[in-house]
Design a protein that fits this description.
The complex is a heterodimer of chains A (106) and B (268). Chain A has 106 residues and is mainly β. Chain A has one domain: Immunoglobulins (Immunoglobulin-like). In chain A, 0% of the residues lie in helices and 48% in strands. Chain A has a 4-stranded antiparallel sheet with strand order 4-3-6-7, with no helix packed on it. In chain A, strands 1-2-5 form a 3-stranded antiparallel sheet, with no helix packed on it. Chain B is mainly α. Chain B folds into 2 domains: 132 residues, Cytochrome c-like domain (Cytochrome Bc1 Complex, Chain D, domain 2), CATH 1.10.760.10; 86 residues, Cytochrome Bc1 Complex, Chain D, domain 2, CATH 1.10.760.10. Helix content of chain B is 46%, strand content 7%. Chain B has 12 helices and 7 strands. In chain B, the strands form 3 sheets. Chain B has a 3-stranded mixed sheet. Chain B has a two-stranded antiparallel ribbon with strand order 1-2. In chain B, strands 3-4 form a two-stranded antiparallel ribbon. Chain B is globular, with a radius of gyration of 21 Å. Chain B starts with a helix and ends with a strand. The chains are: A mainly beta (106), B mainly alpha (268). The interface between A and B is medium-sized, with 13 and 14 residues.
Amino acid sequence: MADSRINLAAATRQGEAIEVRISIRHAMETGYRTDDGGKPVARNVIRNFACRYNGVPVFAVRMSSGIAANPYLRFFVTARESGTLDFEWVDDAGARGMAQAAVKVV
Amino acid sequence: MNSLHNVFIRSLLFAAAALLLFCEAHAQPRALPLGVLRSGIEFAGADVRGMQADDLANPGFLWVERGEKLWREEASGASGKSCASCHGDATASMRGVAARYPAFDAGSGTVFDLEARINDCRVRRQKQEPLLRESDDLLGLTAYVALQSKGMSMAARIDGPAGAAFDRGRVLYGTRHGQMNISCAQCHEQNWGKRLYAETLSQGHGNAFPAYKLEWQTMGSLQRRIRACIFGVRAEMPAAGAQELTDLELYLAWRAQGLPVEAPGVRR
């Protein structure tokens, strides 16, 4: 499964806001459900999500079971210089996800 | 004498009604006139409509991307073929295909929905195990193929060999089922637009499927959606891929003729 889909403007002028949108594939198991045998299904949600801009942390979220499956995040980062946005997340089971997007500042 | 006269008139009326029914069966007038035809998205709130319209906010595209990857993946078995080995670029070869499904398959002599067609190709051409219905792989491939028909008019064929399946589907659609003892038509034909608990009854079209259902928190096929209705009326549940479900899918596709394909749609 595609782990994530990212969308941002092809180029942004320096000092302006870059709109970053990311959609991540994750079941976001709440921990409140039971399986067909009545046993509780362990909680497994993306616990932490972070975004770094050329290595500098610019955005982070701590998520819990209130977030729907396949979370979709939209946030803004101020355009400083061309480079990369690195996204990283980890779920309750310890599984890590990563993605990268190029930023072009003009 | 009077009663005999009555009987005569009644049988005349009966014959006329039977003739009308006969003509109707063959001319196939629309179940819903084009003027009142409404896609399910029109019954959804602004948030759901916005989600479907935005390719990034629409989680269905996570499955589309998976399908796109699978399209090019070569079979591990004897054939070594990918979908692309035969069909090439899906954006060209699959354009309009989903709009015509379900369709009659001469090889098996039955009507296939898109999922059955993909699995038939997998088994016969790729020499692979069929994919499970509702698996992320099958939903992904179906969504990817269906996307290539997005915006095109639903145009399933019901003439020729598909006619028998269509007739069965139409009968099923109008038959009362389950403990609730209601038919599909009673909700989706006679009472669409009205409230059922917190929901607005839609016209019951399948043009957005496979779709991301917020209720399910995942992608699902039209068969899963139909099964949800069967559960709702507390009727006996057909198996996944059962003939009656395909028959219903064909009837629904005909009923939705003129609506655009919206797959991968978003529904509440």
